[in-house]
């Protein structure tokens, strides 16, 4: 499989999209707030937008090279693009849509995606999930060397989304193509791809496994995106090589990370435990506060205790009979924290 | 109650308007018995006029579609500097009085016009020919089509065109397989209106092409000419125009409906299945 | 709201009433042949003139147009109206000569009336029923130049249309009244048409029966008197030919 190598700069309205990236076989999710330039990046890769500067190559083929004046039009790039609303041709049937790029493999693709019985239907008659499958089949009919997905879940309702996530992840993995998907929803990114990169205001801020991004966000932006805990405070070195961070509430927490001045303490939700009393264990940090809210999430519950959000199993929440307003202790280890500098 | 009186006043206004607009049309048909109308249409004058009108209008229309469609596509899909200005230029004939258009055409293509010498060198003399009629019709009717075509192409979701390109279709194929079919309704409606306008053209034609029965005398010119001499021929041609105009109006209304439903289901006017 | 509607209706009605019916206090409505466009106001500046081809004006009068006086460039339109009882007895008040006009640059290099039959020429005449057109065809026939009719590229609705096409340089030649040449003196040159083939041009004046007969009659009398005749002469119109009628 080919490796995608890109290095480009595209001026946008308020800032410039500037990044360098390498992606081999497998899915890379690009997460970031709206307007960060994610869609522009995909369009630039597809040849729909011309970067001001840079180079795009897939394997040995150079698709764009500003310095050498190379700019292949989209039809000459071996790219498969799944648009945000799927952009299915309304005047063609499902079959004709899929066969648009290549008549030969259409039937097989319809089978593979389980939409063979919809062959004669028009896009207007399909459900969201069905349309996504048609869009994927259509893009793959071209046997592209690079697959691009723009907010693949955005056009689906919450119920379908949960259902489709697993399928899509498996499909992308089986395809094994270099795949770039963009989304503003970190959960989707984490569910669909083994690696996630965060794009903020046109810059790549952090790249890694989803858990890494949650547990050790590089900055406040990433922390905000991943939805992990980021508690602000003032840090100064303490005994035993630890750093003590004084929170706004006055409490102090310890971290094995180094830091000074204004910092945010990042802790993954699943690293925070909840109990009635501070448990006699190795965890250094205990914060007593009333439960501000309880949010069930399938088989888990998100418990907001003071400035922290903890994630416990629904079973545990029931066992402890947690109720709102109740005073509890949130505990976490110093080793589970990361310190993120705040300006 | 004032509200009630207002309602009545609205209905009176509508009735007056409908009467006023339909009476002349009705009167046309009532003045001469239908068999007499048909007989007049068979007269040489009428037949010649209809022939000239149809020939020149069809040729002009082919030119309008042939040049206007790609031009409209470019204007609809590409943003370039001065685009708004170009669009305004193309709409200019809409606001120009037809006689002025005729003089303009003479000033450009006449013997002593801007291109007069060059055309003469090529052996082309345009005024007083059917080509002049074609050009006059093109000039006054094309804005109707181009405006509608631009709107029809602009209404297409640009992502559909992008999708086509990412699926390996170049710009030409994208135009043929995606843009044209999706714009067909608007193009059809604009086309019928432009055709009707061209068929009824008078002022520019009489200025640029003159009026000679059998060669440049189109139906509107023939109507005007026969008003004093052969009123019945004028009536017959007028009635024919009315029938034709009604057909044009119907076509302009029905074509967009038909093509829109065709994009949802293969059968026109069929309901679309919902999930 | 009702009041506004009522007022609107009353105003509309008033305008309509004022529009139709005899306008005793309005200006005289004179329908005149196009060739009289420049001279008519010199005879009498007061009336409101409408100029067009005589046949077209006759048709409008037949359809009830509010004319008081009809000045026609030939007998036929007037006779038809007379036969229909729409005008009083007409009388001839002037005559005219026909001339050939060519553009100032004379692109076809024409020098004589007889050359109008030269093949390939672009000739413009008045249409059928338009006096200048009928007169021109009479003159061509009298001169044995029927072949010239093959050269006709356009039949105009009035003499101004003929003159216009020649003045613009698009036609090679046209046949108009001698009096019209003055108006376009800079743009055209004239070629004489021999006396032997000149048609009997007669301008008729008629009072429209349904109009303001008294004032119309007075206008028509002024045409015949010295002031009217003088203005016509000054504009190169010819006096009434000494023949019956």
Topology:
The complex is a heterotrimer of chains A (343), B (275) and C (245).
Chain A (H helix, E strand, L loop, with lengths): L3 E8 L4 E8 L2 E6 L6 H9 L6 E6 L2 E5 L4 E2 L7 E4 L11 H5 L7 H7 L15 H13 L5 E5 L7 H18 L2 E6 L2 H7 L2 E6 L2 E6 L1 H6 L4 H7 L2 E9 L5 E5 L4 E4 L5 E7 L5 E3 L9 E13 L2 E6 L2 E6 H7 L6 E6 L5 E4 L2
Parallel strand pairs in A: 3-9, 3-10, 7-8, 8-9
Antiparallel strand pairs in A: 1-2, 1-4, 4-5, 5-6, 10-11, 12-13, 12-15, 13-14, 15-21, 16-20, 17-18, 17-20, 18-19
Helix pairs in contact in A: 3-4
Chain B lengths: L1 H30 L2 H8 L2 H34 L5 H13 L2 H12 L6 H6 L8 H25 L3 H9 L4 H29 L3 H6 L10 H11 L1 H32 L13
Helix pairs in contact in B: 1-12, 2-12, 3-7, 3-9, 3-11, 4-7, 5-7, 7-9, 8-9, 9-12, 11-12
Chain C lengths: L1 H18 L9 E5 L6 H4 L4 E5 L1 H9 L6 E4 L2 H9 L7 E4 L3 E6 L19 E4 L4 H12 L9 E5 L2 H9 L5 E5 L10 E5 L10 E5 L5 H12 L1 H9 L11
Parallel strand pairs in C: 1-2, 1-3, 6-7, 6-8
Antiparallel strand pairs in C: 3-10, 4-10, 5-8, 5-9
Helix pairs in contact in C: 3-4
CATH superfamily of the largest domain in chain C: Periplasmic binding protein-like II
CATH class of the largest domain in chain C: Alpha Beta
Percentage of β-strand residues of chain A = 35-45%
Question: What top-tier CATH class of the largest domain in chain A fits best?
Answer: Alpha Beta
Global mean pLDDT of chain A: 88
Compute the separation of the termini of chain C in Å: 64 Å
Query: What is the second-level CATH architecture of the largest domain in chain C?
Result: 3-Layer(aba) Sandwich
Total number of domains of chain C? 2
Instruction: Tell me the greatest interface.
Output: A-B, 32 and 25 residues
Structural class of chain C: alpha/beta
**Number of strand elements of chain C:** 10
Order of SSEs of chain C: HEHEHEHEEEHEHEEEHH
